[in-house]
Amino acid sequence: MDALTAALKVAASGLGAQSERLRVVSENLANAQSTGTTPGSDPYRRKTISFVSELDRTSGSSTVAVNSIDRDPSDFPVEFQPGNEAADDKGYVKMPNVNVLIEMADMTEANRSYEANLQVVKQARDLISMTIDLMRNQ
Question: Flagellar basal-body/hook protein C-terminal domain spans which residues (predicted)?
Answer without folding.
Answer: 91-133
